[in-house]
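Following up on my earlier thread - several people asked me to post the actual chain instead of describing it. Fair enough. Here it is, all 96 residues.
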Amino acid sequence: MQLSLRNIDFIWLVLMIITVLNAVVAETADGSLLITIIIAISIGFKGRMVVQRFMELHNANRFIKNMMNAYFYVIPLLVVIVQAFPDTIANLTRLN
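Reply from S.P.:
Thanks for posting it. Predicted structure:
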């Protein structure tokens, strides 16, 4: 997929706007599960955009491509799980 400089600039601008909006929401909103889900979805979206548009993985080894794509589903899911069950996660990861 060949991207023009104009498309790359637009994609970069969209990613930057999402990042700034996430930062504003994270600093001003209460730490609710809904806010965490919204931010997790944007993390996944931004990651997929970077992988699809900038990393040029369309010709990469299928395993590498699948692992990169899976990363941006797994990490946001883990963020939501930690927000939803903080005490359980803390108990599971405690050393004592």
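The mean pLDDT is 87. That should answer part of your original question.
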